[in-house]
């Protein structure tokens, strides 16, 4: 049965020798069945750490220190480790950025897909391979039974990404996390992969978290958009709301950086860098890069507030 994901006030910190790093700081969002939420922002803003927090797979010395993650009415942060292992790959699946490094180079494709089926569905080995061939056919790989015997290096980049999607879908997950699923693929293959994910999501009514830095991909494939900066969501709403009426200066900066057909002048940039997450400023984390800061920005961090139905922003000017 399709399930709703609800994340409330999620906090994931890294306890390092240099100090405390708030990689994910008070993040909240929800995804309905059959809906895609895109999480965008520059490298290092906390997108992937948010995804790993949902799976409770934060690398050391990271820890989830607060918040709630509800799926199927269960708070995943309060489940025993054994139950969480059952949920990973079964109820929640993830497509990682680099299929060549995510796939085992010394195992055949069929074995890698069948492994996911055997772990969670207790399928007989022969039946698991039959199901694996059906999954390859589902994701658009020609001659799937022959491809079961191939190794990852024998496939193209787009085919390897389709294999990763097949593995992620093997157990019919309720939540699919796609972390930069079109990285390093050419534009034509990118479009094919995103069309495939959209079709499968609609067929299976999965909740989908799409992590991307490509606003063009987001515009064509997401229902809602959350803009992340320095571990916090600074703006969130329906894609059309945020694209047509961006309220946070960081969101406007990201949209201004997108090249447009016929544009002749240089693209504008967002000056400066992400703040030091160990020595965070007292006020707004974006203050040093903001083109229009006010006095209050330097004194107190703004809370995220709903400006119009479904459209939230973390900015004192709104």
Keywords:
8-stranded mixed β-sheet; 318 residues; 12 helices; single chain; globular; 12 strands; alpha/beta; 4-stranded antiparallel β-sheet
Please write out the topology.
Layout: E1 5-15, E2 20-31, E3 36-40, H1 47-54, E4 62-71, E5 74-75, H2 81-87, E6 92-95, H3 99-102, H4 109-121, H5 125-138, H6 144-147, H7 157-169, E7 175-179, H8 187-204, E8 207-211, H9 215-221, E9 224-229, E10 232-238, H10 239-244, H11 249-256, H12 295-299, E11 305-308, E12 311-313
Parallel strand pairs: 3-8, 3-9, 6-7, 7-8
Antiparallel strand pairs: 1-2, 1-4, 4-5, 9-10, 10-12, 11-12
Helix pairs in contact: 4-5, 4-7, 5-7, 7-8
Structure description:
The structure is a single chain. The protein is of the alpha/beta class and 318 residues long. It is 34% helix and 23% strand. A hairpin with a 2-residue loop joins strand 11 and strand 12. Helix 4 (109-121) packs parallel to helix 7, helix 5 packs across helix 7 (157-169) and helix 7 (157-169) runs parallel beside helix 8 (187-204). The longest helix is centred in the middle third of the chain and has 18 residues, at 187-204. It is globular and about 70 Å long. The protein starts with a strand and ends in a 5-residue tail after the last strand.
Instruction: Name the overall outline.
Output: globular
Task: Determine the N-to-C terminus distance.
Answer: 39 Å
| Helix content, binned percent | 25-40%
Radius of gyration based on Cα positions: 21 Å
pLDDT under 50 segments (min length 5)?
Answer: none
Structural class: alpha/beta
Extended strand count: 12
Tell me about the biggest sheet?
Answer: 8 strands, mixed
Order of helices and strands: EEEHEEHEHHHHHEHEHEEHHHEE
Count of DSSP-assigned helices: 12
Strand order of the largest sheet: 6-7-8-3-9-10-12-11
Roughly what is the average pLDDT, rounded to an integer?
Answer: 90
Q: Approximately what portion of the residues adopt beta-strand conformation? A: 15-25%
């Amino acid at each position: 049965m399709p399930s709703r994901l609800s994340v409330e006030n999620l906090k994931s910190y890294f306890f390092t020798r240099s100090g405390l790093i708030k990689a994910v700081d008070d993040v909240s969002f929800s995804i309905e069945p059959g809906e895609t939420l895109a999480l965008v922002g520059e490298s290092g803003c906390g997108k992937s750490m948010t995804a790993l927090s949902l799976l409770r797979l934060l690398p050391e010395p990271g820890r989830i220190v607060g918040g709630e993650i509800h799926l199927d009415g269960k708070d995943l942060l309060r489940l025993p480790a054994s139950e969480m292992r059952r949920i990973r790959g079964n109820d929640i699946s993830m497509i990682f950025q680099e299929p060549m490094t995510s796939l085992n180079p010394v195992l055949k494709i069929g074995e890698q897909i069948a492994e996911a089926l055997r772990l969670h569905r207790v399928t007989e080995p022969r039946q698991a391979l039959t199901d694996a061939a059906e999954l390859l056919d589902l994701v658009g790989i020609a001659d799937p039974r022959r491809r079961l015997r191939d190794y990852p290096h024998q496939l193209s980049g787009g085919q390897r990404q389709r294999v990763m999607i097949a593995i992620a879908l093997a157990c019919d997950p309720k939540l699919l996390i796609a972390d930069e699923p079109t990285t390093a693929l050419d534009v034509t293959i990118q479009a094919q992969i995103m069309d495939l994910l959209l079709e499968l999501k609609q067929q299976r009514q999965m909740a989908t978290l799409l992590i991307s830095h490509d606003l063009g991909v987001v515009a064509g494939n997401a229902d809602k958009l959350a803009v992340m900066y320095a571990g916090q969501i600074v703006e969130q709403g329906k894609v059309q709301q945020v694209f047509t009426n961006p309220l946070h200066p960081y969101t406007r900066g990201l949209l201004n950086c997108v090249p447009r057909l016929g544009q002749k002048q240089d693209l504008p940039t967002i000056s400066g860098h992400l703040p030091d997450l160990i020595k965070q400023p007292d006020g707004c984390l974006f203050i040093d890069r903001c083109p229009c800061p006010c006095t209050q920005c330097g004194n107190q961090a703004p809370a995220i507030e709903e400006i119009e139905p479904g459209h939230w922003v973390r900015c004192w000017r709104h």
